[in-house]
Request: fold
Amino acid sequence: MQKSKTLKGLLAVSVAAAMFSAVGVQAQTTSAAQSSTVGQTGSIAKLDSGDEKALKDMAQANINEIAAAKIALSKAQSSEVKAFAQQMVNDHGGALTKVQAVAQQKGVTLPTEPDAMHKTMAANLEKQSGDAFDKMYMENAGTKDHQMVLSKLQSDAKMIKDPDVKALADAHTPVVEQHLKSAQQINK
Reply:
C-alpha cells in the first residue's frame, strides 16, 4: 500500500515536471519566433560595427588571457606568478561571461579561441620552463597584453554608443589597470 502511494506521488511529480517543461519549451519557442519576426521587421536595434567590434575585442582579450593563464597555472615556478595567473583566470573568466551575455542579447557572435598572435605566444610559452617561463609569461600576458588591452578599451570607450557595451568597457577598464599594475610589480 505504501509503495503504491509512493509510486503515485512520483508519477504525479513527473507529470507536473513534464507539464512545466512543456510550458518552458513553448515559451522559448514563442519568444524565439517573436524575436525572429521582430528581427525581420528591423525593430530590434542592431549594434553598429564599432560597438560590435568593441564587444568582440573584449571577448578576444579575455579568451587570450584565460588561455595564457591556464598554461601558467601548470608551468609557473613562482608562487607569485601562479597567484597572478589564477587571478587572471578568475577575473577574465567572469568578464568573459558578462561579455557573452551582452553579445547574446545583441545577436553578436564572439570568438571562441585565442587569436593567432596568442596561439603563437602559447606555443612559445609551452617551450619554456622555470624562471624563463615566469619571465616570458609576465612580460607578454602580464604587461604587454594588459597595456594593449587598456589602450584599446580607453580608445573604444570614447566611441561606443550602445549603453550595455559602454558599461562593459567601463567596468573592464579599472580591472585591466589593476592587472597591469600587479604585473608590473611582479616584473620588478
Observations:
- The CA atoms of residues 59 and 98 lie 9 Å apart.
- Residues 2-41 form the longest helix (40 residues).
- The radius of gyration is 23 Å.
- The mean pLDDT is 82.
